[in-house]
Amino acid sequence: MRGARQVALYGVVALVLLWTLVPLVWMVLSSFKSPDDLVSSTPRLLFAPTFEHYIGLFTGGNALGGYIKNSLIAAGASTLIAVVLGCLAGYGLARSRFRGKHHVSMWIISTRMAPIAAVILPLYAVFRALDLLNTTPGLIIAYLTFNLPFAIWIMNAFFADLPVALEEAAMVDGASRFGAFWRVALPLTAPGIVTTGILCLVFSWNDYAFAQSFAGPGSQTLPVAASQLITQTGINWGQLMAIGTIVVLPMVIVGLAVRRYLVKGLTLGAVTGE
Amino acid sequence: MSTANPGGGKGGARRLVPSFEARMLLPALLLLAAISLFPFFYIIYMSFNEVSLIGGVDFEWVGLENWVEMFTDPNVRNSWITSGVYFIATVGLEMVLGIGIALLVHELVWGKNLVLSMLLLPMFVAPVIVGLLGRFLVDSTYGLYAWFLESTGLITWEILGSKTSALMAVILMDVWEWTPLITLIVLAGLSSMPQTVLEAAKVDGANYFQRLRHMVAPLISGVVVVALLIRSMDAIRYYDIISVTTNGGPADATKVIPIRLYETAFRFQELGYAAAIGLGMLAFSILVANLFMRILRGQERAR
């Protein structure tokens, strides 16, 4: 009886896994298929793998290397700025009690949740006036509109979980206020900092809307490069699946690396996991 | 219990301590003000103007014209309705499936961690790639799913070319990506339940569904609400999937409000009008953020 129930359970879970994994597996497989294998009337599971799509992406006039560099710089810089400022401000927020703190929190969280389309509009006009369109700094600023409030908010949640007594003890031992933060609180929230950094990186690396609106030929990022493979004359599905694999793989790896803290990060600190 | 003053014993530190927190907060908040408050007032100003992008940015005051237009424009109204349908369908399906899958995974005896890791993968995929991959899978010549649906006789037409199936397709792409988030959150709630109470109920003869209804449901309801709010906020935030699959079509069947806004601003160059639409969206997300804050404050009080 109990055995039968478990078998049924694993059967249903297997179906869920199939629904989840088939698209991803198919993407990776397709990126190694020759054009003939891609277009075959019945889908092919067995085929002679080819690297032609990857080779095609990295050679030629519009090689992918430049896009990857732009993506890394834009996502990396905005993550770095957000995490550094987020640690300072998150700590400041967690340890202070002042009138109107609620309003500051509300402001931060609303900024994080603002619809991207509604953010793009004023930023586009401002960037145009300031000559920031088609530049990497413009993109970094755009990514900060969601990464900075996110980092402040999450670091605040991580610091709030830390007992103040530890910092008080350090200060009794002669540490300065900043020393207590730097040498006691900060190391203890290391997992929080890593989680915040990784989630900021994932959000900005995966961005399409901002880059598509603000970035130009010299600053264009990887997700936009992927969408540009769809043209009036046809779609190079093989190359598209190869770019997809390149975009997705690193994020899956870093994302799963902080799985324990994902719940806290993704619920903005409202739920603590595992 | 004030935490603002951990060094209170040391005389003069008392007055200096609050300013330390302020100094920590200030750089981030100044930057945040520059990139959030300034654009916020700017978009409000835009909504009362006709904005032209010819040679820099040019404003012409038109008063409430954009706002009147927004409330009377049947196209915008239809987009709100489409957004509503899309929102209810995606978030609804994600909640039902996410909770169901979490209950299943929670019961697994072995391989629980591995299964969860695999289930989470879609969350890390860039939404634009989800859209492009979805388009590949339902492509009538190349697509694996299109082939499957056609050979079983379920759908024999171009999936993204027909109104109902196109809407269903973009909804399912969103469901594929974000159901794992609900599963993850609900699982966190399930694993923090007091096991002894559940075991006792089991010993007393309560069956699975009785336990589910009378014990599990009340215990995880808080977590479920958080999951719902988090998903609601993101559901109106992103529009990447629709943007690269149907871009609103066919015949406006998937033209949700952010797609309409984008088209109004950048294709028809009516930035002032788009600003009014954008503020409508913003009002919704601020409402959800408000609910979220209330829940967090409730948690703090309970602690």
Strand order of the largest sheet of chain B: 1-2
Distance between the termini of chain B: 14 Å
| CATH homologous superfamily grouping of chain B | MetI-like
Topology pattern of chain A, helix = H, strand = E:
HHHHHHHHHHHHEEHH
CATH-defined superfamily of the largest domain in chain A: MetI-like
- Give average pLDDT of chain B, whole number: 89
**What overall form of chain B do the CA principal axes indicate?**
globular
Question: In the CATH hierarchy, what is the architecture of chain B at level 2?
Answer: Orthogonal Bundle
Structural summary, described in words:
The complex is a heterodimer of chains A (274) and B (303). With 274 residues, chain A is an all-alpha fold. Chain A folds into two domains: 1-50, no CATH class; 61-266, MetI-like (MetI-like fold), CATH 1.10.3720.10. Chain A is built from 14 helices and two strands; from the N terminus they run ααααααααααααββαα. A two-stranded antiparallel sheet of chain A has the order 1-2. In chain A, strand 1 (230-231) and strand 2 (234-235) form a beta hairpin. The two termini of chain A are 30 Å apart. The model of chain A has no long low-confidence stretch (mean pLDDT 92). With 303 residues, chain B is an all-alpha fold. Chain B contains twelve helices and two strands. Chain B has helices spanning 13-46, 65-72, 74-107, 112-120, 127-137, 144-151, 163-191, 195-203, 208-237, 240-245, 257-267, 271-302, and strands at 49-52, 58-61. In chain B, helix 2 crosses helix 12. The relative contact order of chain B is 0.12. The model of chain B is unreliable at 1-17 (pLDDT under 50). The chains are: A mainly alpha (274), B mainly alpha (303). Chains A and B meet through helix 1, helix 4, helix 5, helix 6 and helix 7 of A and helix 1, helix 3, helix 4, helix 5 and helix 7 of B. Chain B: It is a multi-pass membrane protein. Chain B: Residues 80-292 form the ABC transmembrane type-1 domain. Chain B: InterPro entries: MetI-like, MetI-like_sf. Chain B: This is Various polyols ABC transporter, permease component 1. Chain B: It is found in: Cell membrane.
